What we know:
Elements: E1 11-13, E2 25-27, H1 36-41, E3 43-44, H2 56-64, H3 72-91, H4 100-117, H5 128-139, H6 145-168
InterPro entries: PRIN2 (IPR039349)
Amino acid sequence: MALSATSTAPLILYPSSSSSSPPPISISYSTPLSSHRNIAKNTHFNTSVTSRKRNHSFICRAAEYKFPDPIPEFADAETEKFRTHLIKKLSKKDMFGESVEEVVGICTEIFNDFLHTEYGGPGTLLVIPFIDMADTLNERGLPGGPQAARAAVKWAQDHVDKDWKEWTRI
């Protein structure tokens, strides 16, 4: 049977002959210009997947969570660890030459600003400061912007959240 634009007869789709198939799906069709609301209201799926209830309070609790403010003392201590590591790591690479101190200085300044203004514990370590590091080094014509940023983000991922947990442990 062909359905016309004004047909209200339901369209029923039957599963293949396999006995493990889900029950038939019944779809009512009103007009091609139906709103999404009408289509959704007139569509009936007889499956257990769509009939599960969702716990919406979980979503609300997550949206209400506030991260702690940055801790200046933590930021200072972590910046010093970061600087020490980056000097040691980048000094091993020939590509930086005599620019190592300047590269590390720029990366450290950006990281320090981030820790003092944005970082509020696990879940707040962003990629933006590391992109800024690479961009700033490239804009100033310094060598190894991507490599320095990669070394910085690797260290931060391995240490910052863990150090924060130790710092704030009661």
